[in-house]
Amino acid sequence: MRRYGFAEVAGLVTALVGSSVVFALTGNDVAAAYGAVLGENVGFYGLILAREFTRDARVAHARGESYDLINVVRTAGDLMFEFGPAELLDSLLIRPAAIGFGMHFLGRPWGVVVGKLAADVLFYVPVIVAYETQRRIARARETD
Fold first, then answer.
1. pLDDT tier at 8, thresholds 50, 70, 90
2. What is the average pLDDT across 8-29?
3. Cα angle vertex 15, ends 88, 85, to 5°?
4. Burial status of residue 140 (CB atoms within 10 A of its CB: 0-12, 13-18, 19 or more)
5. What secondary structure does DSSP assign to 87-141, as a single string?
6. 53-70: per-residue pLDDT in tens?
7. Do 3 and 82 meet the contact criterion of CB atoms below 8 Å apart?
8. Binning pLDDT at 50, 70 and 90, where does residue 102 land?
9. Under 8 Å between Cβ of 18 and 24
10. In angstroms, rounded to a whole number, what is the distance separating the alpha carbons of residues 133 and 62?
């Protein structure tokens, strides 16, 4: 919860906004499901990116280093390792389908919420495995 909780709240809010805006523009539930996915990605990853880049910059500065392009690329690479594979399948297929089914059976606001939560279960399995793998690799490097 500490790592992903606030980002999930931001993602839920922006998913509801994205779904509502796209539905208002198109009147189409399928498009609204993709609007929810896009909105959620903006909120979730906006917070994750801001937090990770800020944290890594602070760590570099505390060590007396500058947070240069190499460090920025390293942070981006770590985030791609953690989220990339899961996000591809999630954003293109799983999350729109889960939200679409949720909206079909529960209506737009509740369907977005329930569909998002269902998709989160599938999303976090590979994300947590990747994150824990990164942590173990980092600890192994520190002991070498």
1. very high
2. 96
3. 15
4. exposed
5. HHHIIIIIHHHHHHHHHHHH-HHHHHHHHHHHHHHHHHHHHHHHHHHHHHHHHHH
6. 999 999 999 999 999 999
7. no
8. very high
9. no
10. 25
* Inter-axis angle of helices 5-26 and 108-143, nearest 10: 140
Are residues 96 and 41 in contact, defined by beta-carbon separation less than 8 angstroms? no
Residue type, 42: V
Tokens, residue 59: 């760590």
CA dist 105 → 118, 140, 142 (Å): 14, 48, 51
Q: Note whether 105 and 77 are within 8 A (CB).
A: no
What letter represents residue 16's amino acid?
L
- Report domain extents, the chain: 5-143
Which residue in this structure is represented by tokens 């954003």? 91
